[in-house]
Amino acid sequence: MEIDVRLMSEREKDESSFTTESKHLLTPGNVVVENGLGFMSGHGTYVRDDKIFASVAGIAERVNKLISVKPLKTRYIGEVGDVIVGRIREVQQKRWKVETNSKLDSILLLSSVNLPGGELRRKTADDELMMKQFLTKGDLISAEVQSIFSDGSLSLHTRSLKYGKLNQGTLVRVCPTLVKRRKTHFHNLPCGAHIILGNNGYIWISPVINEDVEHSGGYAQCLEQISRSDRETIARLRNCVMALANWKLMLFDTSIQYAFEESLKYQIKHILKPENEKDIAAKVKFRLDKEISFIN
User: Fold this and answer.
1) Using CB atoms within 10 A as the burial measure, which of 42, 46, 143, 198 is most buried?
2) What is the rounded CA–CA span in Å between residue 192 and residue 111?
3) Measured distance CA(136)–CA(166) in Å, rounded
4) What element of type H or E holds 232?
């Protein structure tokens, strides 16, 4: 019984080592852990006088004994299974280099893509010669992180039919930490648009996906003229995403749909006025908080 009490007291001591600041926004120099002897200092922290301090502005995270601070604004740090939106930068031998908002270019191997039509077979020398017909420099793609190389660069794949070359739409760049990790990052929103929320901070907004295009192997592109109403919906969604990002609200399908609904009283070009941004963000936050309190 004495051992259990001792273990319990050690656990309580560890929990109490966290300052109240560590649960909120930290700035460089803030104390994360008062007594850091039992902890390991991770990314975004440093140790001085047995205390762990934050070296970047962000939120403290704890995994067992490892303490780190996740920065609010940073380059994308990939994890296996992440959905990303990227741009082809270069076609190389049996691979494409992809810009994904990370520190290093990501790699998409020829062996990690579907062939046109979704055909599954071993890639041949003829396929290698046709690589530029599949994907060429400047193309935008959606993909998934398959693995992480030793230098931190990412290996991608587009083996699922939902991934591949992107059609007509608009690309929005936000801070990666604002994109909320969800079970799915592909959404057909009720407002009549399709959105891909890339974990790397690249968000793709386009007209609702046609099933024939979606199941064509990821290479067929629909270049038909987009209707005026669809263009207005895409433009409004783009400004709504920027308004939420400017006010540091998390981006996911529900928050973006709420922002779209709250923006309808403004003209598209007026959404990004500071006073209108503030109004939309405040109302979206109120609706999200109301949902959370109702669930609890």
Assistant:
1) 143
2) 35
3) 12
4) helix 228-246
How many CA atoms lie within 13 Å of 180's alpha carbon, on the beta-carbon side? 14
Residue 120 token pair: 């599954």
For 19-45, the pLDDT digits (tens) are 544 456 788 999 998 887 888 898 889
CA-CA-CA-CA torsion sign (111, 116, 117, 122): negative
Reading phi first (left if > 0) and then psi (alpha if -120 to 50, else beta), residue 187 is in beta
Beta bridge partners of 68: 61
CA pair distance 202, 200, nearest whole angstrom: 6
Compute CA distances 185 → 53, 63, 197, 236, whole Å: 34, 25, 5, 20
Q: Give the single-character DSSP code of 171.
A: E
Kindly report, residue by residue over 215-235, the tens digit of the pLDDT: 455 566 667 788 999 999 999
Residue 194 CA to residue 208 CA, distance in Å, equals 5
Place of tokens 């929005």: 172
Under 8 Å between Cβ of 280 and 268: no
